[in-house]
Design a protein that fits this description.
Number of strands: 9
Oligomer: single chain
Strand content: 25-35%
Helix content: 25-40%
Number of helices: 5
Distance between the termini: 21 Å
Radius of gyration: 20 Å
């Protein structure tokens, strides 16, 4: 059994921004400065129509006051789950900094213009891959996937790759955040931001949670 102490530092109420997105931006900037592996990788949890939860890693592509954006195939399992239940959970596991951020929110599609702008910023082969892969669907072999990729690459060899109508972004609009900092003797620091009726002028109530 692996056991270790968390000793990199605590988290106090006075350390927190009143706005949870400002707090996220602060921690993300520190994660980027620390050069931890894949700081924008986040676990996305969804629930299917029959109540089965599923998790997978997706990459955060944009975050602002409106929410957290990632991109995917709209025929994928995650998108199908969201179509039935738009409530999702995000988790940033910044183990190297002994930190976690958990976010609950409502998922909705971004505008076609946003999806197009991001799609056109992707490398050419990533654009081609969006056309080649029927994400989450069964395939007979990797060779079949590579053959389809080669076919699409040849098709779009002479021009720009258009945005597939089955591909685009989702924005997660948060209604709850939790910031977790590891502490010695398992006395971790946890703070939750919510938006109940008694919220402050900034719209968020901050509570300390027991570890």
């Amino acid at each position: 059994m692996i056991r270790r102490e968390y000793l990199q530092g605590g988290l106090r109420r006075n350390d927190l921004h009143e706005n949870p997105m400002s707090q996220f931006e602060h921690w993300m900037s520190q994660a980027l400065e620390a050069k931890i592996p894949d700081p924008t990788a986040m676990t996305l949890a969804t629930v299917s129509a029959d109540g089965e939860p599923t998790q997978r890693i997706v990459l955060l592509k944009h975050a602002d006051s409106k929410g957290f954006v990632f991109y995917t195939n709209y025929a994928s399992r995650k998108a199908t789950d969201i179509a039935h239940n738009a409530k999702v959970s995000l988790h940033f596991p910044w183990h190297f900094m002994e930190r976690q951020v958990k976010i609950n929110g409502i998922a909705s599609k971004v505008s076609p213009a946003e999806s197009l702008a991001y799609f056109m910023s992707r490398p050419h082969e990533s654009q081609v891959a969006a056309w080649a892969s029927e994400q989450s669907h069964s395939i007979s072999s990797r060779q079949m996937l590579e053959t389809q990729f080669a076919r699409m690459k040849e098709k779009f060899l002479q021009g720009k790759v258009p945005l597939p109508d089955f591909w685009g972004g989702f924005r997660i609009t948060p209604y709850r955040y939790e910031y977790w900092q590891g502490g010695a003797m398992r006395l971790h620091d946890r703070f939750e931001y919510t938006q109940p009726q008694e919220a402050t002028d900034d719209g968020w109530v901050i509570r300390r949670l027991a570890p």
